[in-house]
Design brief:
Blueprint lengths: L6 E6 L3 H6 L7 E5 L9 H12 L8 E5 L8 H8 L6 E4 L5 H18 L5 E6 L2 H5 L1 H5 L4 E6 L1 H8 L11 H13 L3 E4 L8 H14 L3 E4 L5 H7 L4 H19 L5 E3 L2 E3 L1 H13 L4
Parallel strand pairs: 1-2, 1-8, 2-3, 3-4, 4-5, 5-6, 6-7, 7-8
Antiparallel strand pairs: 9-10
Length: about 280
């Protein structure tokens, strides 16, 4: 699993200045948001702005994801139609309750990809309800889902529990999600830290998340990137796997092959790029 997922930074999709600034940010993923940060009246214009930004994929240092609206919103179809294009690296689906919701999105994606001659786009499923927590393992079995994301605020609202920085009411869910993800060979990303003025609290929260098995954290401000990256550094196993990926892909490329296998897993250019980024993050040759 040679991949940097230390930080996923949400960027409001209706703000051209933020979309432009995201080009220079050192987050592992910048995720253009169509959901919570965008008012209903601004959804269409946000889709247009995001579509244009993805068209300039080469100017961004990070991977580019988009967070759509939730399956229950009835807006996902319009979101996908606008954003699924060459240059997008993945999609975050918020408030996923069950595998059926993911299957429906997969079918829509397959149609768009076929029409637009695109490779399959991967998904991250955000778990933000009691139903989603119960079904997290099943949701993670989808081949398209590369990671589960823990969404603490909507979960606490669903449970009728007040938010605190310790999030006591969500402890079970926070511990369960990385277990469910790992059992299916997937990653897990922890919830955001809301208090931008409490950097020490963020550091403690990152340390706890890593101890639970999270690969990284979702964040809401560029100032949080450094603290998150300091905690979620690649493991020895991830570094070793990245080296294998690079060696195998370079060997395949020398033979004019576009893909190869490492320990039975298909490897292509995107895996090669991610492996190189991982090694660069730990200052290895």
């Amino acid at each position: 699993m040679s991949r940097l997922l230390r930080s996923l930074l949400f960027v409001p999709g209706n703000n051209p200045r933020f979309l432009e600034k995201a080009k220079t940010l050192q987050a592992d993923i910048v995720c253009f948001d169509l959901e919570d940060s965008v008012l209903p009246a601004e959804k269409k214009s946000a889709r247009d702005l995001i579509r244009e930004a993805i068209g300039h994929r080469g100017e961004y240092r990070a991977e580019i994801y988009v967070r759509t609206n939730s399956p229950a919103s009835g807006l996902v179809g319009d979101d996908l139609s606008a954003i699924v294009q060459k240059g997008i690296d993945g999609i975050v689906i918020p408030k996923v309750n069950n595998l059926g919701e993911i299957r429906k999105i997969e079918r829509s994606l397959a149609v768009l990809e076929r029409k637009r001659k695109l490779k399959p786009v991967e998904l991250m499923a955000s778990i933000e309800s009691a139903e989603g927590v119960v079904n997290a393992h099943q949701i993670a079995t989808s081949k398209r889902v590369s990671a589960l994301v823990f969404g603490v605020f909507d979960l606490l609202n669903d449970l009728g529990v007040e938010y605190t920085k310790q999030a006591e009411g969500a402890r079970y869910a926070r511990a369960k999600i990385p277990v469910d993800a790992r059992a299916t060979g997937k990653y897990a990303l922890d919830a955001i830290w809301q208090d931008l003025s409490d950097s020490q609290g963020l550091e403690r929260d990152c340390a706890e998340a890593r101890s639970l098995g999270y690969a990284g954290k979702t964040i809401i401000h560029p100032d949080q990137i450094r603290s998150v990256h300091a905690t979620f550094h690649p493991s020895e196993a991830e570094v070793g796997w990245a080296k294998k990926v690079i060696e195998a892909y370079e060997s395949a490329r020398a033979k004019k092959k576009g893909a190869t296998k490492v320990e039975g897993k298909m490897i292509d250019e995107v895996h090669f790029k991610r492996a190189r980024a991982l090694l660069a993050s730990v200052d290895l040759p």
